[in-house]
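Revision sheet: structure tokens.
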Amino acid sequence: MIRKLSLTLAGAVAASALLLSGCGGAAQTGSDAPAPEAQPSSQAQGSSSAPSDSSGGSETGGKPAKEEVVAGFAKYWESNGLPKDKAEKVASCIVDAMYDQAKPKTMTAFKDGEPTKMDVSDTTAFGKVSGECAKEAA
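Predicted:
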């Protein structure tokens, strides 16, 4: 079971690293994706700033609530073959370790169950933390 968990996490880390390193996607990411995403994202934050502030948004620097991130990220791990209890442990461990330092984009990606969309600057930390968390969850 430890080996399966480690392989699952290693696969996710490798996939994240490949996708975020620009494996042929630099043109798409550089020209198309950020501009359209940046505008709706900022508009959405602006229009929903009051609810975000009431739930601690000002304290989290625009990040979704930690509990929401853990819940969404656990669903991601579960959909990738981990049992629910292991998925929750891994998600909680990774989010606890990264939440304060990670970019809001990364926490939103985790919450949405799309870790490949994390901020490129957080990939090294994710690789290190996910390996440590795999050991803990096993």
